[in-house]
Specification:
Helices cover 45% and strands 15% of the residues. The protein is an alpha+beta fold and 137 residues long. The strands form 2 sheets. The chain has a 3-stranded mixed beta sheet, with no helix packed on it. The protein is globular, with a radius of gyration of 17 Å.
Length: 137
C-alpha cells in the first residue's frame, strides 16, 4: 500500500494523516497481527525518536476510527490487524500465532441465529470469533 493510499484510507475514516500515524500503519502492514511492542520496534528502527506513547496512542486512534482492529487473545495479550473485513482468527496457544479465517457460512449462521433469538435490548453489530488450538504445518 502506497503512502497516498494510506492517506486516502485515513481521510475516509476521518483520521489526520500525520507522519507518525503513517509510519505506524506501514509497520502494521509489514507485520502479521503484531503486538504494540512489535510495532514500536519496527517504527523505532526507522525513526528512533518515536516514543512509546506515540505508538500506543496511534494504535488506539486507528482502532477507534476503524482503520485497524484490536485482537485480544486468551492469554490477555493485545494484537492488531489491518484486515477489517469480516473474518475470524485462528489462535495457536503454543506459538501465539494468529491466522485469518474466512467462513461466510458461519457468519450467516450466527447472524441468522442471533436475529431469530430476538434478544431484547440488543442489536448485533459485529461478530468476533477466535478459534483456539494449535496451528500445525
Amino acid at each position: 500500500m502506497s503512502v497516498n493510499e494510506i492517506i486516502e484510507l485515513f481521510q475516509s475514516k476521518g483520521v489526520k494523516a500525520t507522519p507518525q500515524r503513517i509510519s505506524v500503519y506501514e509497520a502494521l502492514l509489514s507485520l502479521k497481527h503484531p503486538s504494540a511492542e512489535m510495532v514500536l520496534e519496527r517504527v523505532k528502527a526507522i525513526s528512533p525518536t518515536t516514543t512509546v506513547a506515540t505508538v500506543y496512542n496511534t494504535l488506539d486512534c486507528l482502532a477507534k476510527a476503524g482503520v485497524i482492529e484490536k485482537v485480544l487473545t486468551v492469554d490477555n495479550k493485545m494484537y492488531f490487524d489491518t484486515n477489517v473485513k469480516r473474518h475470524y482468527h485462528l489462535y495457536s496457544e503454543d506459538t501465539h500465532e494468529i491466522r485469518d479465517f474466512y467462513d461466510d457460512e458461519l457468519s450467516g449462521l450466527i447472524w441468522t441465529y442471533i436475529q431469530n433469538k430476538k434478544i431484547q435490548g440488543f442489536e448485533l453489530k459485529d461478530i468476533k470469533i477466535q478459534l483456539i488450538g494449535d496451528i500445525n504445518y
